[in-house]
Specification:
single chain, Rossmann fold, 2 domains, 4-stranded antiparallel beta sheet, 12 strands, about 35% strand, binds S-adenosylmethionine
């Protein structure tokens, strides 16, 4: 798979490989925004999150790996808890625990919950201001760590400690789902822009050190009136590879670790949003994959 337009990989740039825009409308509509009247958490959700697609993937993986439905999830690094909210909307039996150590972002999500969920749905969401490395909850069917958030753990011992903690946190046939990005472009210092509704999202791969494997990435937002929100979010990550993550997950105790790789649209040669288990990826400039660790 190749793509002349392939560019940087941003959280979550899209459903996958070498596609530089999310599969959402990018037409500028009424209601252009300015920096002054924008809320960075709202812009973040609009730019990089696809809770429906993530919940679809959980359902697909559970059907394929265990032929039963997942009921309970724990969304680690949940931020505004968008995935928790989508999850409890899906089925009356679904429950969700969101974990984040940043109180303001949890407050932001909690404040909007009554506008997004009914009372019954809200009663099935729990938000915890805790560190994902130490949080204690009832065991859940699935733990999720999405938008590469686990990459803040930048040494093997730290990552192993986190993975072992997740292992303890899932039921006997539980699963841990995490996403990972890579490809040659992910090691470049470059910016990628996407025009969305009333604003431009900028993924800035600001710095990468090949010796440490550590990267500094920013998200900026630009607006049609020329105003900007620079460094709305900054991520200091180690860029882990799939084999490293698989080895660590196995070491943490998971008995099977599979990779869901995205299919390719034959016409555009870009990712088609369809995921299947694979042992053979493609060396394209930008890709996203899901790693699924099964207890
Ligand atoms: C990139 S955001 C992810 C938001 C959301 N999960 C998503 O998919 O877009 C990362 C979040 O992780 C949180 N975080 C960072 N370190 C954490 C830790 N050790 N325990 C819990 N939350 C943490 C931050 O506060 C931030 O809200």
């Amino acid at each position: 798979m190749t793509s002349a337009t392939s560019s940087a990989v941003a959280p979550k740039p899209s459903a996958g490989k070498s596609r530089t825009t999310k599969p959402k409308s990018s037409k500028k509509k009424k209601g252009w925004r300015t920096a002054a009247d924008s809320d960075i958490h709202e812009l973040y959700e609009l730019s990089v999150q696809e809770p429906e697609a993530e919940c679809d993937l959980i359902d697909q993986v559970w059907k394929e790996q265990h032929n039963r439905k997942c009921k309970s999830i724990r969304e680690d690094f949940c931020g505004t808890a968008a995935v928790c909210m989508e999850w409890v909307k899906r089925r009356k039996t679904n429950t969700a625990i969101g974990v984040d150590l940043h109180q303001p972002v949890l407050d932001w999500g909690a404040k909007r919950m009554p506008f997004r969920l009914n009372k019954d749905q809200m009663s099935r969401v729990t938000l915890l201001t805790e560190d994902v490395r130490t949080v204690q909850t009832e065991r859940v069917d699935s733990v999720l760590a999405m938008n590469f958030s686990y990459s803040i753990f930048d040494t093997r011992p730290d990552m192993l400690r986190y993975f072992k903690h997740v292992y303890e946190g899932v039921v006997d046939d539980g699963m841990f789902l995490l996403d990972v990005y890579g490809g040659s472009d992910s090691y470049l210092e470059m910016e990628e822009e996407r025009d969305l509704d009333g604003f431009t999202y900028v993924w800035d791969q600001h710095h990468y050190n090949p010796i440490t494997g550590r990267a500094v990435n920013h998200i900026h937002f630009r607006f049609p009136d020329g105003t900007k929100i620079k460094k709305a979010f900054t991520y200091e990550w180690r860029l882990w590879t799939i084999p490293e993550l698989r080895e660590l997950l196995t070491e943490a105790g998971f008995k099977k670790v599979v990779v869901y790789w995205e299919g390719t649209d034959e016409e555009t040669e870009e990712g088609n949003g369809e995921w299947s288990v694979s042992e053979a990826g493609e060396a394209c400039p930008g890709w996203i994959a899901y790693v699924v660790a099964i207890k």
